[in-house]
Amino acid sequence: MVSPRRWLNLQEYQSKKLMQDSGVTVQRFFVADTASEALEAAKRLKVKEIVLKAQILAGGRGKGVFDSGLKGGVHLTKEPAAVGELAGKMLGFNLTTKQTPKEGVKVKTVMVAEALDISRETYFAILMDRSCNGPVMVGSPQGGVDIEEVAATTPELIFKEVIDIFEGVRDDQALRMAANLGFKGPLEKQAADQIKRLYELFLKVDATQVEVNPLGETPEGQVVCFDAKINFDDNAEFRQKAVFAMDDTTESDPLETEAAKYDLKYIGLDGNIACFVNGAGLAMATCDIIDLHGGKPANFLDLGGGVKENQVYVAFKLLTADPKVEAILVNIFGGIVNCAIIANGITKACRELELKVPLVVRLEGTNVQEAKRILSESGLPITSASDLDDAAKKAVAAIAKK
């Protein structure tokens, strides 16, 4: 069974570097960690206009506000000196956008890039399509906008090409897609070449999706990938170590990041009853039934399938690290999971962590009788529950007693 994992988060400059390494045309850029580095980068570019971008994972940078007083995480300027000054008001300061927490996110890196005019914007993506049993190219001459909206209002402007995974993108397919995107004359061949290079990148990094919006053309007659989003196959981590090493976890919940190290999936919520489950469906059912009985889930931690005793211990450590937690509800349905392993992990965690909050446990499935024996003979203050409804009632009641 595949263990659940967090999405891999790459900053804009990291995605552009991967594209650049595959021969995909992107704006020339440098990355800077200090204002002086940004100034030096602006001078080295030797271009008419420069764009300075704060590097955070959240969207809406352009309309964001820094706690330094600077407005906007994206700035255009023709003066290299201004780049150093602007970077000084970005680096080390928090940028707040519609997608960040209220306090914003600290900017540690900026991208200094060549600003290019865009005369026309198109949309292009390569993604895995289950219905086609492989990769598919999707494109539209309407780029720079929400592609879902284009598909809903003008579906005739969405073009698809199914890719034979053994053959790859054929020349005629690439040229046909380029023509459908509206590229004409020499630009058609240039766009077809970019499409083939993007497919090479898709394969090389084990991507599940490469989305370019916009894939644009400049007044000078150049086809450029201005912005890209790359999703990766988590199962390929063993052979994509360099890519996965770039994962930026600084904007993630620290508990979520720590959980991922042990192949656990943690989601923080705003209640006071921690939920320890196996499987996303069971997690949602547990949260719902707690809510039904007047309680509020504080989080849920999903064990997934092949569980080891140490994971149970780590899970308890993470759950109790949340100061909001006033009770823990364990709800395990042991199909793949051996309930006795869970029980041993629970008793170990209770003793070593000196658990201070009420613990309600409902176990069902593989080796459940042995698991119940382990819990009952442990001498620990563990409340057993006969089913999920009973467990939720007992967890809510345990808090009410406190």
Automatic annotation (TrEMBL):
GO terms (BP aspect): succinyl-CoA metabolic process; tricarboxylic acid cycle
Pfam family, one: ATP-grasp_2
Superkingdom as given in the UniProt entry: Eukaryota
Residues reported in the UniProt entry to bind Mg(2+): N213, D227
Binding site for substrate: N278, G335, I336, V337
GO MF entry, a single one: succinate-CoA ligase (GDP-forming) activity
Catalysis: reaction(s): GTP + succinate + CoA = succinyl-CoA + GDP + phosphate
Keyword NAD assigned: no
Positions contributing to GTP binding: Q27, G60, R61, G62, L116
Keywords, ordered alphabetically: GTP-binding, Ligase, Magnesium, Metal-binding, Mitochondrion, Nucleotide-binding, Tricarboxylic acid cycle
Pathway annotation: Carbohydrate metabolism; tricarboxylic acid cycle; succinate from succinyl-CoA (ligase route): step 1/1
The keyword Ligase is annotated on this UniProt entry: yes
Main location: mitochondrion
Intracellular or extracellular location(s): Mitochondrion
Site feature (Important for substrate specificity) residues: E49, D117
Gene3D superfamilies given in the database record: ATP-grasp fold, A domain, ATP-grasp fold, B domain, Succinyl-CoA synthetase domains
A GO term from the CC aspect: succinate-CoA ligase complex
Coiled-coil parts of chain: none
Subunit structure: Heterodimer of an alpha and a beta subunit. The beta subunit determines specificity for GTP.
Entry similarity comment: Belongs to the succinate/malate CoA ligase beta subunit family. GTP-specific subunit beta subfamily.
Role: GTP-specific succinyl-CoA synthetase functions in the citric acid cycle (TCA), coupling the hydrolysis of succinyl-CoA to the synthesis of GTP and thus represents the only step of substrate-level phosphorylation in the TCA. The beta subunit provides nucleotide specificity of the enzyme and binds the substrate succinate, while the binding sites for coenzyme A and phosphate are found in the alpha subunit.
Protein name, entry field: Succinate--CoA ligase [GDP-forming] subunit beta, mitochondrial
Source organism of the structure: Cyprinus carpio
Name of the coding gene: SUCLG2
